[in-house]
């Protein structure tokens, strides 16, 4: 963007939005956005579906961080991420791929959504190995896929209820879980939850399998304390991270040994999170 464009009315907003969008979606983001939203054809989800409201809201920035932290507590899932995802060497590339997948399955044509799912399933088939303790893992395992799914859906929904522009009522929350189940089934999850109550029940059922491996705690420190971002944006990122941590169950915080910030559960943290999410929403809607 040229200087004269920045100083025009709305220029700062557009610049902030472009910089933020490129970080999240990658250098190919504008082309992908055009393909996703402008290509005519039937979609998996109509414009009135809750999944569009949740995945299209800036609260996803908090929900995404919470999901990564929570997902890391399953030793097999974390071993697969540590060995195969490249989250340390190319964190922005991984973020761009994840955000593009979510946008494609939520907003793109049914054909593009299925193609994106097929690509991910192909990757999952190749991701297999053994943990440091000798336990075998395979990313295509339906049970492991289900854990990643429920941790993600729970995180996105909770973040939307706390920081979303228009929190959902009970019908909407159940509808979101049911919408997300459509994508999960396509990815290979067997009988994913379809209501908020089923989501909570299935998430709780994984508790005996969860524990804090060194890889999980290392990932938490990386995400919260040493993220690969410039110093000027460390404070805004820290606000998002504090809110992601505050929304974790206390048992998850304890297992991950995340930094115990004073007043983590205070209203001040939530208010700061509201302000940061609103600022992101403002920038991206310009």
UniProtKB/TrEMBL annotation:
<protein>
    <recommendedName>
        <fullName>ER-bound oxygenase mpaB/mpaB'/Rubber oxygenase catalytic domain-containing protein</fullName>
    </recommendedName>
</protein>
<dbReference type="GO" id="GO:0016491">
    <property type="term" value="F:oxidoreductase activity"/>
</dbReference>
<dbReference type="InterPro" id="IPR018713">
    <property type="entry name" value="MPAB/Lcp_cat_dom"/>
</dbReference>
<feature type="domain" description="ER-bound oxygenase mpaB/mpaB'/Rubber oxygenase catalytic">
    <location>
        <begin position="53"/>
        <end position="282"/>
    </location>
</feature>
<dbReference type="Pfam" id="PF09995">
    <property type="entry name" value="MPAB_Lcp_cat"/>
</dbReference>
